[in-house]
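Attaching the record inline, Q. Sequence:
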Amino acid sequence: MKIADKEHSAVATIKHALEKAHKFQSRYNVFNWINDDAIKRAEEIDARIARGEKIGRLAGVPYALKNNFLSRQGGTTASAKILTEFSSPIDATTVAKLEAEGAIMIGRTNLDAFAHGSSTENSYFGTTKNACDFERVAGGSSGGSAVAVALGIVDFATGTDTGGSIRQPASFNGVYGFKPTYGAISRYGVVAMASSTDCIGFFTQNARDLDLLMRISAGQDSRDLTTLPNFYQDSKVQEVRKIGIIEDFDPEHIDTEVLNIMQKRVEQLQKSGYEVVKLSMPALKYALPAYYIIVPAEISSNLSRYDGVRYGWRSEEARDLDELYKQTRDQGFMPENKRRIMIGNFVLSAGFYDAYYLKAAKARTLIIQEYMRAFKQCDLILSLVAPNPAFKLGSKTHDPVSMYMEDIMTVPVSLAGLPALSIPVGKTAAGLPVGLQLIGPQRSDRTLLRFAEQVADLGCGEQNITESNKREEK
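Structure, as predicted:
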């Protein structure tokens, strides 16, 4: 990331980022809102530099904010109709920390409404297109943030990851996407999806930038009691010798090209002197059904606050309070939001709690124990991020089970609260990016990022703008 100084003007950097944002917006639908006032913030930073004042570690660096982070700049909508009239009176902890270091937010990125989805097709503001193929999805729910980085509009973007919402779009667009250990970064000021798995993370072009962002953002927050003490700053980087490979995913359900790319990278690791350990983790087969019981249950609770009374958009057609609730929620929520509310209410209802939710919670414990046993055999685990490259727009919107299956390799990590990093490692014959997922034990975040730096040759380079975009920029 280029930090502003006497040679690199913050104003020039931000103007260039805004030009790109406007240029790509009509084609890719990356943003819900573009912050043209960001230039004023850049002018302030340049003035401080001219006066010889101390500036932050991200001074003048443009970034994109996933639109479920609260910020006083622009409206926080979570890409949902029901929040279109909501303006936040506060800044999320992550936003405050980034901007205290001089980072400048140039826009709010599109996402699946309330982060419910794997394709960014479930947004009230329309679909975000893949950075490499207009006919493909960007992934989700943080699709807009991934594309903003992949197109080179910004140096980094924020994301949230509940079951793969950073890692999967990072893989689909050929950038780095990091989900830290659960609780490493404060969730205060972020629209809640599922509170027991929600994580704050980032998209970048390389692992080194992720390390800097973690140093700035990680740490305990008195306003979020799930945050951990700042282990990231003080943790030691462990030597990595053994890489685990999970054998339990069915190769028949994995795209052949994706599987071949994975196998080639494993061979490269072996040639580089790393020992590859094959892992049997049968409990992972319960991860997806457990996730889609636990998460909707938490979603149904978190979305109950949106009633048209306290904040946000409300239906103007209602004649009484009962109609206000019904019509506001019916018109304000997207179909996927309603589906998850219904599932969540069902599994928590009397007579079904023990049959579904309690069993899912027990399965989650088995998955956590499975990972603990696995990390006694290896230092890190390498797996695919998704079984397929980016799929075509509209191909899964009417088949929710097929859409949920795209998360099969990311949700186990989220249920266990582990750190995981998506690394771009190649492309298919059709030019679609493929990422691999590095997974570490809890609080091994620094080791994970340092290892990613050391094996950067696994990736397809730090510049991920597609060839078509390069020609367009010229």
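Residues 10-243+376-473 form a domain with the Amidase signature (AS) enzymes fold (CATH 3.90.1300.10). Residues 458-474 have pLDDT under 50 and may be disordered.

More tomorrow.
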